[in-house]
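Anyone else keep sequences and structure tokens together like this?

Example one:
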Amino acid sequence: LGEMLRKAAESEKYAMTVDIIRQIALTGCRRSEVIGLMWTEADLGASCLRLVDSKEGACIRPIGLPVVEYLEERRKTQTGSYAFPGPRAEDAAFGGFPNHWKQIFKNSPLADVTPHVLRHSFASIANDLGFTEVTIAALVGHAKGSVTSKYIHTLDTALIMAADTISGYIHGLLD
């Protein structure tokens, strides 16, 4: 995946899509959550995304240092509301993702893979690294419906450290 993304990033046309794919892989977020990410939802000082409208409703997602650093750099050059703006309208989310995804991966071993697989991969890697199901659920936004979620009210340091460990590991794999 990393090699294919590096190759795709050589084309200016696919640069934004590659960035979005990397952030999905590094966060375990849904593609709609990354594509529609507004700067007001990126709380980089607290290492989290405060998503207003995810599939689970409003939620907080811890993010690791590779994501924080990427978003900090990106923020320096962005003026609109969206972290990943559309090319024609500054204040609209990027809309070419599905077609670009198909083009990047066509005729490759990943041609049948969907962006949602990156979310599953994030959870699988977290599991392989020894994180608990409750921690993984909190990282990907599934904690709301779990029995233990009533005990998880705040974004604690352990969740941020878990997000940092997982995203750092995936970042290394991609690079």
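And example two:
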Amino acid sequence: DSLPDSGQATSAALPGIGLHVVAVDFGVKHTSLRILKSLGCRVTRVPGLWTAAQILALKPDGVFLSNGPGDPAATTYGIEAARGLLGKVPIFGICLGHQLLGLACGATTSKLPFGHRGANHPVKRLSNGRVEISSQNHGFVVDSDSLPGHLEATHINLNDNTLAGLRHKEFPAFSVQYHPEAAPGPADSLYLFLDFIESMKN
């Protein structure tokens, strides 16, 4: 289903005006869709079972791979869709979407002994050394030692040094293993949505 445009506002206040985002729903939180809409994007939500061809037929400016439950390696349809989107459209994934993007790019995933649950997980952004306080709720991670050469780590969970973010070096695709829309206290991670908008503009 489609969410309506944000209406009359300046492009400075709404940097995503004119951009069409397809959100692939693996269990999406409505806050993510509301944030994209609040930034001016037109958002179309589609089922997680959709193929890359179906998604691309909607002519998106970018694709958002949502959070969701379960073992990412078993979500073969999501992996195939992500693989088919790479290099064709900017991609932003969170949580399960992050894991699916990693698998689509050749990395592996594994199950954590206890999982990451809660709203106070410190995550280090490697580009500038800043620490974000993140909300997390997942039982699997992308294995940091499995990243192929075309992927690079962007964030690390400081509690156990597991991978918390990655970026494709050739294509506009990146993802994080936490919930930037949750804003547990300060809105530390909302810049990721702005980065996604910039990748669509470029």
